[in-house]
Amino acid sequence: MQQSNSKNQLRWVILLLAVAVILPTVCLLWFMSQAVKNERLAVRQKLINVYGNKALEVRNEIDRRWKNQEEHVAEDLRVKGLPAYFYGLIRSNATNADGIVVYDSNGECIYPTRAPELSEEMELTEELEGTWEVEFSQNDLESAMKRYEEIADKSESAYCYYKALLGQVRCLRGLGEIDKAIDVCERIIYKTSQKKKDERSLFLKANAKFLFAELRKEIRNRDLDSEWKFQATVRNLLNMIGDYNISGRIPAISSEQRVFLGRKASQLIEESRPFLPVPDYNDIP
User: Fold this and answer.
1) What digits encode the pLDDT tens for the residues 3-36?
2) Which of 9, 208, 251, 282 is most buried, taking the most CB atoms under 10 A from its CB?
């Protein structure tokens, strides 16, 4: 009996000792965790205050710059007018911007200009497709050229007309008749067509100017006059690519096509080096 009481007393002593050790330890750990949490909150608040003020300064600086930019734009528009101001934007880096997007009063994007829709139904589609098959699949360039001539004669739209003429140019080039191909290209570029025009026809005329430069390149070594004409053609091509038509008298080529022709023109120039010295371009017919 006494032995049993002794064991019970020992258990209570051990339990009390355990409580005396564990409870303060738990309390200490809790207070330490709260202290760490409070310290973290204090550091976080300090960071918020520091970087919040920095962010506010940056935002105010951005607002100030944009306000100055808006005032500068308004003043330039008042002095120069819209066409000249737009031309200055696209030909310089005055705005320190990577690109320019222009919207009209209705929120429609008017610059960069998009390429015309070329998938619409057009006249003589079946005849053109059949002629393309003769040209590319059958490789019968003479027959294809005659068919393109017939299509050009009876077409009513400038787009279909230029499409057929460009087909003639390809066939003549493939037959080695470069001079005749150049003559047809000149018809596309320089002769005014009375047929119905749209943006698609402008798209083809712009491509014809690059093709014209390629044809001139093929015969540039014939004589000095050919070299001069080739360089004049390249110059005209570059002028067209860089002409944003601020007068608005005629539609400008699309931004997509401008980039494409610019890259092709750069490649053509690199392949054509070195250039022979030539007289003033104004003296070249």
Assistant:
1) 556 666 667 777 777 767 777 777 878 878 888 8
2) 208
Measure Cα distances from 161 to 49, 59, 170 in Å. Answer: 70, 57, 15
Statement to judge: residues 55 and 144 lie in one domain: no
With a cut of 50, say whether residue 167 has pLDDT above it: yes
Which domain does 6 fall in, by range? 1-111
Q: Which residues contact 135 (CB under 8 A, 6 or more apart)?
A: 141, 144, 167, 170, 171
Cα separation, 253 vs 206, in Å, equals 7
**∠ at Cα 145 (272, 160), nearest 5°?**
90
Question: What is the DSSP secondary structure assignment for residue 196, as one 8-state letter?
Answer: B
Residues 20 and 66 in one domain: yes
Given 3-state DSSP classes, what are the helix, strand and coil percentages for the chain, each rounded to the nearest 5?
A: 70, 0, 25
CATH code (residue 279):
1.25.40
Which residues have CB under 8 Å from 61's CB, separation 6+? Answer: none
Q: Check pLDDT > 90 for residue 214.
A: yes
Nearest-angstrom CA–CA distance, 161 and 178: 20
Own/partner pairs for 21-28, CB < 8 Å, 24+ apart? Answer: none
Sequence-distant contacts of 173-182: CB under 8 A, at least 24 apart: 173/215, 174/141, 175/141, 175/142, 175/145, 178/215, 178/218, 178/219, 179/219, 181/215, 182/212, 182/215, 182/216, 182/219
Question: Could you tell me the two tokens for 248?
Answer: 């608005």
d(CA 225, CA 220): 8
Which one, of 220, 255, 284, lies nearest residue 99 by Cα? Answer: 255
